[in-house]
Design goal:
Aldehyde Dehydrogenase, Chain A, domain 1, alpha/beta, Aldehyde Dehydrogenase, Chain A, domain 2, homodimer
Chain lengths: 405, 405
C-alpha cells in the first residue's frame, strides 16, 4: 500500500495536466481494447461466478458478465470520452475593488478512492470517469469480483502503458484489511466514495479522516394527495415499487391522503403485481395485509414489499418523510398546484418529484452519462452525481502589482 | 446538549421556510439591538479581558471590543441582510429524455456547527450568515470570550423572540468537553466548520462523523521569476509578509529564480522592514541570514520571519510549493506569459495569483461580504467562502405521469 500511495503523487501531476483530446484518445483506445479482450474478461468472470455460486442471487446477477455486458462496458468508456470536459470551466469570474481579475475555475480533486462491490463494470466506469476528470483513482473492488476486476484493470493498465502513462493513475488494492488503513491516509487521498452495504458505509464515515461522499441506503416515499389522477397514481406506484425493487430509488412506503379515494384500487393493483403490503391494523384488517411495526418505515426492503399508510393531510406526509426517509428521493402525486409547490419546497431530499416515478433518480436517467453514483451526502454532491462532481475549483487571480492596503 | 440537539429539528424546519424579506427584517433588528446594547456588551467584554490578561497579546487583541468594533459588528449584520439571498437560485435546469423538467436549486444545508476562538464578532457574523442562508447554527466559542459571546447572543436571541422565532435557530454550547460529543452527532448536524488552532482542527477532522470544512493553516509561498518587475516584486513581497504576519494569507517562503537579479535588493528591503530571514548556507553566509532547516519550509510563522530559497527554474518552485505549502495561496511575480500560465495551472492551491499579494485571499477582499472563513478543504468549498458555501442543492423534478421504462 505504501508504494501505491506514494505513486499517486507523481501520477496526480501527470493526469491533471493532460489535454482533453489526449485523454479522449486514451479512453477510446481503452474501449477498443476491452472489446478485443472479451474472451479473457469472460474467462476471468467465469472463475468469479464459480467461486460465488453460494452467494445470493442478487449478487450473482450483478457479478455475471456476458458478451453484451462487455460491449456495454466498452460503450460506457466511449460515452465518457464523448462527455464535455469537466475541467477548466469558468464557474464564476469578477473583478474586485482593487482591480484583480478573479476566475473561479474547475480543477480535478486529486486522488479519489472508490470502494465498491460485485459489479465489475464499476472498475472501468470509475477508472474512466476519474481519468476524464483529471483525477487519480484508487479502486477497491469486492473480493467476489476480484478476477473480473483484475482482467478489466489489466486492459486499462496496458492502454495507459501504450501511451507512456503511469498505471498508478488507476490504482487498485485488493486486500480487505486495507480499507481501515486507506481511510486514514488524508495526506494522499482527497475523497472517499464508498458504494456498498450500509455497515461498510457507516464504518467508513465514522472512521475516515478523509472527506466521504456516501452512497447510502434509499428509503424513498410516495405521497398520494387528495386531488390526483388515479391512473397516474397507480401506474407510478407500480413502477416505483416493482420495476427494480433492489434499486435504491425504489419506494418503500406510500402515504395516501385519507380522502384520496383510490386506496382499494391501489392495493388491488399492487397485489396483482405481487407486492406484499404492510399497513396499520385498521387497513391491514380491512384488506388482509401484514400488520406493520413502526420500525418498518425505516426499512429499505430491496424487495417487492411496501408499506402503506393513510395520512390526514400533506403536513403529516411531509413530517413522516422527513422523519423516516433517507433524504434520497420522494414523489407527490397531485393535481393541486399549492400542494405540489409545498411538497417540492418542504421535503428535504436530494430529489423531489411531482407526478413522476422516483426510479428516475439516476445519473443516466438525468442525462449525466456514466454513473458516479447517487450521493446521500449533503455536502459537495447530492443526488445523482455527474462527472462534474469529481471536480473542485481554484481561484486564478490576475494582478498588475496590487498589494493589500 | 441533548435538548440543544433535539431543538434543532424543529428550528431547522422553521428557519428554512422563512421568506428572505422577513429574514432581512429580523437581521436589521438584530443590528439595531446590538447598537442599543453597546454598554452591556462592553461590560461583558471587560470581564473577559480582565480574566484573559495573562494570555498572549495576539489573543487579547482579537478579544478586546470597543465602541467602534461594536459598530462594526452591527454593520456586518446589516451587510449580511443586504446580500442577495443564496437560496432558491436555479443552479442548473434541463429536460431529460422522458420530458421531466429537472431544476437544481440551492437550499440550506441544515444544521451547521461552528467552533471558533477569541473573536466575539464571529458569534454574530456566523449567526447572521447562517440565519440569512436558512440554516440553524450551533456555535461553540472559546472560553476566553464566553461573557462577550453570551452578551451578543442574548441580543440575537431576544430579537428572535421578538419575532416569535425559536432561539435554537442560533444555538450555543459552552462546555469544552462537548466538542467530542458534538462531532459524533451526525444525526443532527450536517456540517462542522472548525476555525482555530491546528491541533483542534486535526482532532476534529480525525474524529468527526460529520463532514468537516477545515480552516487550517496557511503556508503561503511567493515565486519571483527571472523576468519580473523588480519594484513590483519587492513591494508585493513586503506586503505579503509584513502587512499582517499573523494572517493565514501571509507568505512564509519566497522562492527566487537564480537569474532574477534582485536578491540583494530584496533582502535589504525586507531587513529594512524588520523581517528575519532564513536561507540555505551559501545565501545565509553571503547576506548574514539565519541558516534554514528543511522543516522550516513547512512552518506558518505568524510573525515577521521569512524563508528565502533560490531555485533553478519554475518547475523547482512549483514542486517546492506543492510539497511544502498548505495549498492555501501562492503568487508568482513575472512578466512572462508562459510562466504565468504555467504557474496558474500547475499550482494546486485554493488561490493562485499573478503579480499580486496573497493577502487578498479573504472573503471581504474578494467582495463576498462577511467572512465565513477560508477553507483549506478541497471538497464542497475551497478558499474564501461566501455565503453561497452555506448552501447545498436539491433536484426538483416536474413530471406529467412519467414512469421509468
Amino acid at each position: 500500500m505504501n508504494d501505491i500511495l506514494k505513486n499517486t503523487i507523481e501520477a496526480k501531476k501527470i493526469v491533471a495536466n493532460l489535454s482533453d483530446t489526449f485523454r479522449n484518445e486514451v479512453l477510446n483506445k481503452m474501449a477498443d481494447n476491452i472489446i478485443k479482450a472479451k474472451d479473457e474478461i469472460l474467462n476471468a468472470n467465469e472463475l468469479d461466478v464459480k467461486y460465488a455460486k453460494d452467494l445470493p442471487n442478487s449478487i450473482l446477477k450483478r457479478l455475471k458478465l456476458d458478451s453484451n455486458k462487455i460491449d456495454a462496458i466498452s460503450n460506457s468508456i466511449t460515452e465518457i470520452a464523448n462527455l464535455k470536459s469537466p475541467l477548466g470551466r469558468i464557474l464564476d469570474g469578477f473583478e474586485n475593488y482593487a482591480g484583480l481579475k478573479i476566475r473561479k475555475i474547475s480543477v480535478p480533486i486529486g486522488v479519489i478512492a472508490v470502494i465498491y462491490e460485485s459489479r465489475p463494470n464499476v472498475t472501468s466506469d470509475v477508472g474512466a470517469l476519474c481519468f476524464k476528470s483529471g483525477n487519480v483513482c484508487i479502486l477497491k473492488g469486492g473480493k467476489e469480483a476480484l478476477n473480473s476486476n483484475k482482467a478489466i484493470l489489466k486492459i486499462l493498465h496496458n492502454t495507459l502503458i501504450e501511451y507512456n502513462l503511469p498505471t498508478s493513475i488507476i490504482s487498485f488494492i485488493d486486500s480487505r484489511e486495507s480499507i481501515e488503513r486507506l481511510i486514514k491516509e488524508d495526506k494522499y487521498i482527497d475523497l472517499i466514495i464508498p458504494r456498498g452495504g450500509e455497515q461498510l458505509i457507516q464504518f467508513i464515515s465514522s472512521n475516515s479522516k478523509i472527506p466521504v461522499i456516501k452512497h447510502d441506503k434509499g428509503v424513498c416515499n410516495m405521497y398520494i394527495d387528495k386531488n390526483c389522477n388515479a391512473n397516474e397514481a397507480i401506474q407510478i406506484a407500480i413502477n416505483a415499487k416493482t420495476s427494480n425493487p433492489a434499486a435504491c430509488n425504489s419506494i418503500e412506503t406510500i402515504l395516501i391522503h385519507k380522502d384520496a379515494n383510490i386506496l382499494e384500487m391501489l392495493i388491488k393493483s399492487l397485489k396483482n403485481n405481487n407486492v406484499i403490503i404492510k399497513a396499520e391494523s385498521n387497513i391491514a384488517n380491512q384488506f388482509d395485509l401484514i400488520h406493520i411495526k413502526d420500525e418498518d418505515y425505516y426499512n429499505e426492503y430491496g424487495d417487492n414489499i411496501l408499506n402503506i399508510k393513510v395520512v390526514n393531510n400533506i403536513d403529516e406526509a411531509i413530517n413522516h418523510i422527513n422523519t423516516y426517509g433517507s433524504s434520497h428521493s420522494e414523489c407527490i402525486i397531485t393535481d393541486d398546484y399549492t400542494m405540489a409547490e409545498k411538497f417540492l419546497n418542504e421535503i428535504d431530499s436530494a430529489c423531489v418529484y411531482v407526478n413522476a416515478s422516483t426510479r428516475f433518480s439516476d445519473g443516466g436517467e438525468f442525462g449525466f452519462g456514466a454513473e458516479v453514483g447517487i450521493s446521500t451526502s449533503k455536502i459537495h454532491a447530492r443526488g445523482p452525481m455527474g462527472i462534474d462532481s469529481l471536480t473542485t475549483y481554484k481561484y486564478q487571480i490576475y494582478g498588475q502589482g496590487q498589494v493589500r492596503q
